[in-house]
Amino acid sequence: MPTSLSLKWRRALRRQAADPSQQDQHFLALLLGAWSSRRPVGLTGFAISVATGIGAGTASVALQMALRGSVSAPFSTQVAIGATVGAIAMIATRRRFAAQQARHAAAMALASSFLDASRDCVKLLDLQGQMLRINDYGATLMEASSPVQLAGADWLGFWKGGDRDAATTAFRNALNGTPASFRGTCTTTAGQPKWWDSQLIPVKDHGGKVVAVVCASLDITNQTQLLQQLRAKSELMSEMEAHVQLVFFSYSANFEYFHYITAGSSNVFGLEPEEFMRNPNSWRELVVPEDRAALQAEMTRIMTESTEGRAQYRIRKADGSVRWVRSTGYPVIGDNGDVLRIVGITEDVTAEQERIAELDRLAYTDSLTGLANRAALLREIESRCAASKPFGLMFVDLDRFKVLNDTLGHLAADHLLRHVGGIIRRSLPDDAYIARLGGDEFAVLIGSVVDQPGLEAQAKALLGGLSENRLEGLAGAFITASIGISIYPEHGSGHDALLSSADVAMYAAKKTGRNGYQFAGKEAARTIGDFELERDVPEALATNQFFLHFQTIHEPHSLAVHGAEALIRWQHPRRGRISPGDFIPLLEETGFVEDVGVWVLDNALRQLAAWRQAGAMNLGVSVNVSARQLGSEQIVQQVDRALKRHGIPPGKLEIELTETALMKNPKQARTSIVELKRLGARIAIDDFGTGYSSLMYLADFEPHTLKIDRHFTSKIEHDPTTQTIVEGIIDLAHKLGIQVIAEGVEQTAQLDILRRVNCDYVQGYLLSRPQAPEGLMTRAQPGARIGPRVRTGAASPRRSAPDCGPTTDRPN
Ligand code: C2E
Ligand code: MG
Ligand code: MG
User: Fold this and answer.
1) 543: CA distance to ligand 2 center in Å?
2) pLDDT of residue 511
3) Domain PAS, which positions (predicted)?
4) What is the 3-state secondary structure (H, E, C) of 183-226?
5) Is 602 a pocket residue for ligand 1 (Cβ < 6 Å)?
6) 647: nearest Cα among 606, 695, 686
7) pLDDT at 790 over 50
8) CB 461 within 8 A of CB 427
9) What are phi and psi of 548, to 5 degrees?
10) How far is the CA of 133 from the centre of ligand 2 (A)?
11) Statement: residue 798 has pLDDT above 60
């Protein structure tokens, strides 16, 4: 049987292929044929078949009897015929019943299989909308325990609100014979809301009358939720796009056309997405010409290197506004390594740029004058240097601003600085870049005039502008400036060199009388060489760059140490060790010598106190005091204070004054000397014999000591005249009760002569070089002596070597 059935199936399929319209009929005929041939008739069918057979047989016998007259046959034959007819009738009836029953069963089975095979929730509804049957899967979707639970349920009752209306309308349509559909939510038996896509198909009898309605509902809960989520996301995106200045895009790998661009394009570019699709270059046409090359270069780089890239550029929108935008592109790489597309984002960063510009402005502006500040100037210099175009740099420093600041007050000084800024601006060409470096320092970059005569004319114009403009509201004060000028590239290739050479030139201008200008160069550098030192003094004092060396003074015969002269040294951070001959005159000039003098006095006496504490009670210390110090009214008080601070008997301090110092202000010098003597301090005249009217001073100032200058000492050995002079000085001094120290003793022969001519004390390299105090200490006990390492054959029984090697000066 399976073989013959499958043969029939194959034939049927072939026929269907030939005539598709007959598909359903053939399929059903085949199915039903196969079903009916196997189906038993059943008890009722069997009884009806038997009755039909009996009836037919009886009717046959009766018919024969009625025809007895014309057809003569024995009765037994008539019965046999009747029985045969009855049997045939019975068989025919039985077959018919069997076929009908099979059709019915097959239809039921088919309907059930279709129902249960469906992945929809399929229901058969009667004309009142009650569920006659729901498929198994439908019951599961409706979370019912079985289809039976829903049998007879009111289908319309499951829908609520608007969905109920839609369901009712669809059902009515189906009742009217028209298939209908709708979407809606109804809850399952467990109360779970679900979304359904329902189709209602009317079931009609052979007369076309609707007898029932099939409702097939697809559970679209997941997809609806997904859709809702997507919609929500898309709405969110739309909202965001509407508010933020942002565009997302997907560009072809070669930047030729867009796959997609978000609606934000209208915000950012002022172009609708459709415009981008239609003309992919539309946005590029908005880019300002100056930014096009850089943008194109970055796009090319993204393409050729298949790498992420970013470009920031300006666009001019249709309304004429210029906006800053930033585009970032990321290549999407396929499995084979090719770039499939470039996705990215473009945002309007105008606000950010404006903020940066504002910060930049604040960071690079001098708040007082509104001019560029130092940082801005440095940046500008570097950018001009990078462009390799010559320019002039003027370093402008106001003269005596400190005095003005102190006398006028800070507010007025601020006003003055602002005013000066304005004068500079008005006096120089329009293209001059003016900056305030801080305090009273200004700098100007000039690109239009770069030769020396031209810049000279500018400097003169500026100085003229300043002197012409008396400052209103400042009691008619007027101000001058000193200007240093450097030129790029002549005086430097970067801001460091240019500024420092202009700075040096400016100091040179100050040094040569202020209210003038100087060009950078060797001459300016030389002029300010020592001027720089002057500037460094306060820091030197604060950071202990100064220190003292001591040179011992000896009794000539025994060479016993009588005292030590304090000699200042400066360890300059850049210049190294500087000798006092190089900086004391400078400090003299500037007045710093007073501060430094106080420091020397204090430290020399502190050292003497230490030696005294170690036992060297007879030791004295000599301190050099300059003319300016001596001229100050403070000197006596300073000496007094220092002596007291360190507990030094005044007679152990000898103050050395040069003849030059005495000459400068003899009146004040005399007053100070009288006061110092009254304190008990000793006075020595230093470098005796190098100044004028030397002998006068002996009478005028009545010093305790006279120090014969080393020039005499150096000649004493070979020059009899000098020897006679020295001898005479010593005699004269002794007669006046003045002791004599010979300086600069370098030779034993000199020492011998000095001994012979009764010089009281000797000092010089022969006996000791100036050295650090530690090298002079012998032992810390009462009666301790200090003494240098004497490098001469002039032996002395009382000479002692220091414990540690001395740190000595280089020869002068
Ligand atoms: P000065 O007071 O006449 O000091 C003696 C100078 O002669 C020192 O030079 C010393 O090193 C040097 N000298 C000592 N023995 C010899 C020698 O045998 N041969 C030669 N050629 N030179 C010798 P220094 O230390 O360079 O001082 C130079 C001058 O600087 C001093 O001359 C003094 O006038 C001044 N000075 C030094 N320290 C101070 C100070 O603290 N205050 C002031 N106002 N002036 C000072
Ligand atoms: Mg001296
Ligand atoms: Mg001297």
Assistant:
1) 25
2) 78
3) 232-306
4) EEEEECCCCCEEEEEEEEEEEECCCCCEEEEEEEEEECHHHHHH
5) no
6) 606
7) no
8) yes
9) -110, 140
10) 131
11) no
- Please name the residue whose Cα sits nearest to atom 21 of ligand 1: 812
Beta strand pairing status for 210-219 and 121-125? antiparallel
Ligand 1 pocket check: which of 624, 741, 766 to mutate, most ligand atoms within 8 Å of Cβ? 624
Which domains are assigned to the chain?
1-117 (no CATH), 244-354 (3.30.450.20), 364-520 (3.30.70.270), 546-780 (3.20.20.450)
Residue range 277-292, pLDDT digits in tens = 999 999 999 999 999 9
Strands 576-578 and 653-658 turn out to be: unpaired
Token reading at 524 = 């300016």
Structure tokens given for 490? 């002549």
- Output the CA angle 582-583-589, nearest 5 degrees: 120
pLDDT tens, residue by residue, 685-730: 999 887 665 677 788 889 999 999 999 999 999 999 999 999 999 9
Burial of residue 312, with CB atoms counted within 10 A of its CB: 0-12 exposed, 13-18 middle, 19 or more buried: middle
How far is residue 150's CA from residue 160's CA, in Å, rounded to a whole number? 18
Q: 509 and 531 in contact (C-beta within 8 Å)?
A: no
Cβ 608 vs Cβ 617: under 8 Å:
no
Do strands 739-742 and 705-708 pair parallel, antiparallel, or not at all (unpaired)? parallel
Taking the C-alpha atoms of residue 229 and residue 227, their distance in angstroms, rounded to an integer, is: 5
Ligand 1 pocket check for 551: Cβ under 6 Å: yes
Q: Which two tokens stand for residue 742?
A: 């010979």
Measured in Å, residue 359 CA sits from the centre of ligand 3 at 61
C-alpha 483, offset from chain centre: 37
Let me know how long the chain is: 812
Q: How far is the CA of 623 from the centre of ligand 1 (A)?
A: 11
Taking the C-alpha atoms of residue 326 and residue 348, their distance in angstroms, rounded to an integer, is: 6
Find all residues with CB under 8 Å of 131, minimum gap 6, and list them.
123, 124, 125, 150, 151, 152, 153, 154, 155
3-state secondary structure of 699: helix
Closest CA to 577 of 807, 809, 772: 809
Place of tokens 């037919």: 56
pLDDT of residue 690: 78
DSSP letter for 782, please: T
- Sorted by sequence, the CB contacts under 8 Å of residue 575 that are 6+ apart come out as 533
* Paired tokens of 529: 């060489």
Tokens of 321: 């506004």
Q: Of 121-130, 208-217, 660-669, where does mean pLDDT reach its minimum?
A: 660-669
In sequence order, what DSSP letters do the residues of 66-107 get, joined into one string?
HTTTTS---HHHHHHHHHHHHHHHHHHHHHHHHHHHHHHHHH
* Beta carbon of 648 within 6 Å of any ligand 1 atom: no
> What residues flank ion ligand 2 with Cβ within 5 A?
624, 656, 686
Sheet architecture: strand order including 193-204:
131-134, 121-125, 210-219, 193-204, 180-187
Looking at the predicted structure, is the pLDDT value of residue 211 above 90?
A: yes
